[in-house]
Amino acid sequence: MWDYYDRRAAQGIRGVNHALEYWTGLGVEVTVADIEAESDQLVRHLRGLTPARFVEVGAGPGTFTTILPGRGMALDQSDASLRILLAGPAQVPVVRADALSLPIRDQVVERVYATHIYGILGEKDRRVLVSEAKRVARQLVIVDAGRPAGVPAEHWQDRTLPDGSSWRIHRRHFEGPDLAAEVGGEVLFAGRFYVLIAA
Ligand SMILES: C[S@@+](CC[C@H](N)C(=O)[O-])C[C@H]1O[C@@H](n2cnc3c(N)ncnc32)[C@H](O)[C@@H]1O
């Protein structure tokens, strides 16, 4: 999975067209305008959070990094993703590390943002991610995929990259209240395509 995301980084920041491709690939009837409208709502909720000293885990190429309120750093396992992030508009330091073993002392940051990483992990790794977040920060904010009608809650997806390589990627899709209950948090926003949870 790490290798897949490192190679996929060449595609750059994940935009609305990637989201459209993702959801239509799962059989969801949706337009760019639908996704943009919801993404705008998500961004408004994120921007409305109190600024905090943060670490964003699973930052990838920086899809969300520029809109996270506060000062912080972006963390990912993928060197290629972090290089793209650094070349982009986000003015944050980056660290290449494992989100399940954060190189950060206890309670040194105020908030961990987990942007589309929680739902790609297996059960044990999800628990470790949450416990690492609690160790280093007071608050965990999760941005993840919603669950439009007809989309499975959990499954393996077959993917191919432009270089012809094939991959199996684990994905979950969430109803906001279910994810909030799972991590002991509250729903800040729950749409068809995005959920935002604070714990
Ligand atoms: C689905 S992508 C999300 C990227 C970006 N946040 C976004 O929303 O577009 C998941 C990211 O998590 C990273 N990742 C997965 N497991 C990780 C781990 N254990 N430690 C650090 N990064 C990890 C991958 O390299 C990838 O960049």
Describe the 3D structure.
The chain has 199 residues and is α/β, with parallel strands linked by helices. The chain has a single domain (2-198), classed as Rossmann fold. The chain has helices at residues 2-8, 16-25, 32-47, 79-87, 123-136, 176-183, and strands at 54-57, 72-76, 94-96, 111-115, 139-145, 154-160, 166-172, 186-190, 194-198. It has a 7-stranded mixed beta sheet, sandwiched between helices. Helix 5 links the parallel strand 4 (111-115) and strand 5 (139-145). Helix 2 (16-25) packs across helix 3 (32-47). The chain is globular, with a radius of gyration of 16 Å. The protein starts with a helix and ends with a strand. 35% of the residues are buried. The mean pLDDT is 97. The structure holds S-adenosylmethionine. The site of S-adenosylmethionine has 19 residues, from helix 1. S-adenosylmethionine is lined by residues 2, 5, 14, 58-60, 63-64, 76-78, 81, 98-100, 115-117, 120.
What topology does this entry show?
Blueprint: H1 2-8, H2 16-25, H3 32-47, E1 54-57, E2 72-76, H4 79-87, E3 94-96, E4 111-115, H5 123-136, E5 139-145, E6 154-160, E7 166-172, H6 176-183, E8 186-190, E9 194-198
Parallel strand pairs: 1-2, 1-4, 2-3, 4-5
Antiparallel strand pairs: 5-9, 6-7, 8-9
Helix pairs in contact: 2-3
The protein binds S-adenosylmethionine.
